[in-house]
Amino acid sequence: MPGGPVARVLIDSPLPQLDQLFDYAVPERLRDVSRAGVRVRVPLRSGGRIAGGWLVELAEASDYRGELSELDDVVSEVPVLRPEVWALARAAADRAAGNASDILRVAIPGRYVRAERFWLASEADPGPLPTGLPPTPGSEPGRLEAGIEHGERMSLAADPRPVRLPTGEWVGAWAATLAQAAAHTLAADRSALVIVPDYRDQEQLAAALAASVDPRRVLRTDARQSGGERYRSFLEATRDEARIIVGNRSTVYAPAARLGLIAMWDDGDPLLTEPLAPGVHPRDAALIRQGQSGAALLFLAHTRSVEVERLVEIGWVAPVPAAGHVRPRVIPTEQQVALDPGSARIPSTAWREAQGAARVGPVLVQVARPGNAPLLACDRCREPARCAACGGALAIPRSGGDPRCVLCGASASAWRCPVCEGTKLRVVTVGASRTADELGRAFPDTRVVLSDGERPVLRVPAEPALVVATRGAEPVADGGYRAVLLLDGERMLLRESLRVAEDCLRWWSNAAALAAPGASVFLVGVAGAVASALATWRQAEWASTELAARRSLRFPPAVRVASVTASGAAVAAAIEAARTVDGVDVLGPVPVDDGLERAIVRFDYGAGPVVAREIRAEMVRVATERRRPVAGRPVRRPPVLRVRFDEPDVP
Asked: In terms of Cα–Cα distance, which of 570, 568, 562, 571 is closest to 612?
């Protein structure tokens, strides 16, 4: 259509060769509804198929000299893709050698026609802006407010204690800090994005926000919402009124009018790791968006992540001095056998403290895992006991008897340690259910509360109780716990992961922060640097030491990494492409499942864009490689080249 407008469309496809803008002519019938940001349907030349996509921008003409295909349809007249979200998705995808459409699939909820029609018929009613706000707690008065006003990048250690809101509800002090920071941003008629790991954190943050902000100004993007509710919250965020948007990892991509603050709670929590391709961590997306928008950025946690510590040490993020904090009273203990019957592997000192505390209020007992079966390890070298047949963990059945595999059920009566040849086993982990049973027998007059992933409990009253919770599922106690027992530390540290010590320190710190001021927190069975960091509450110093150790070994986050998985020839070609960049080194390749191989590419941050481009070009080459069928042979499957940048558990 000579002289007509041209729509530049991003096709919603995981194919790397389609990760670019394609020009389409806009037919006369669609010109009134074709706007940047709307969902569209477009024809593909291959096979006459119709694909979905986003109209990214309109242009007066195309550089393509041939005849353009026309848009097939505009799915919705609502522009759901805002320019700032498109810029963020494009930059994040390029950094991870991924598809922008994959990120937009995470960022933009699926369309619900009824919710959209209801939203179009409604009028904006955001409520008044907050006024008369007190200074944000947790730091020097006015420090965070000044940082937000000037668009700084900040890291702050959270106040490790529960606090009571004006409504009478108890939350972690971190929630009050984030709520006040977001409220101060909103008071300046600017939006705030607050990213938290899961719904438990959202509940605390929502309660803290309700104390100072009109609820009409707060939007939630929650995986527990119905699809229609989530889509309507997203549409509300596209309006011109400033809002506070609270949610999990996808919230970092939410549209926001006049963005003034991006705040993230506990950025090192594994729940914030994005499982969907291309796997961009919301921390990295937040850093990109802060650079594009000029908004302030705040990382708040009890345990500073090693990634944030690197940003602090290079001067990219400013540490904010804490003020008014009350440090928990942490007592590391050596694991010992208590003489008290039913003591559930709790040292005698902690046992006596728990007995006294349970008479006046709730006591928290953190365990590593749910269930009843005790997991086992070698008594001599502490190697986790595994099934000789399938490699599953060994555990003692609830009914007793010989150890059995938790996966295949095979008996392990003749088990022998493959490391030290030992034959004696010891219990290293008892599940939450079994611990609750044991404590119930030992405290017959005390209520026992069990909280785990299947039976979540969000809060408990200030009444005598024993609360047995798996890590991350600890309820908030009114007034704080009168004592906290951190069990199974030895088992937690046995997990094979580069981040195991950091994760354990985070889990223990978050549980200790639920204790009432002055209450005892017992760390059972753990010694060394991690225990000292928890006892002295010097998590930032531990993170600095850990970063130095990883730097000496060229482990992330001192360097960036990319895992490459494919057939042997495809991996070799991808490695060869990456090695054209200075400073790149490769670990592997090693065999993995389905006859594939895997290699780890390591490179400095400055080389990241070039490495991503080289590997991306190889992904496109592999995806577009044509294989002619051979007579008499089965058709070969298309080649696979899977790439994941900055995978959290890859050294």
From this structure: 562
Angle, CA 61 vertex, CA 59 and CA 65 arms, to 5°: 140
C-alpha to C-alpha distance for 188 and 191, rounded to whole angstroms: 9
pLDDT for res 455? 84
The sign one gets for the Cα dihedral 519, 522, 528, 531 is negative
Burial of 135 (0-12, 13-18, 19+ CB in 10 A): middle
Among residues 62, 78, 76, 81, the alpha carbon closest in space to that of 24 is found at 62
Residues, the chain: 651
Nearest to 330 by CA among 151, 603, 61, 532: 532
If residue 323 lies in a helix (H) or strand (E), which one and from where to where?
A: none
- Distance CA(243)–CA(457), nearest Å, equals 29
- Burial track 197-232 (b if 16+ CB lie within 10 A, e otherwise): bbbbbbbbbbbbbbbbbeeebbbbbbeebeebbbbb
Task: Report pLDDT digits (tens) over 120-150.
Answer: 998 888 889 998 888 888 888 889 999 999 9
3-class state of residue 451 by DSSP: strand
Counting beta carbons within 10 angstroms of the beta carbon of residue 110, is it exposed (0 to 12), middle (13 to 18) or buried (19 or more)?
Answer: exposed
Q: What is the DSSP string of 30-72?
A: GTTT--TT-EEEEE-SGGG-EEEEEEEEEES--S--SPPPBP-
Band the pLDDT of 386: cuts 50, 70, 90. confident
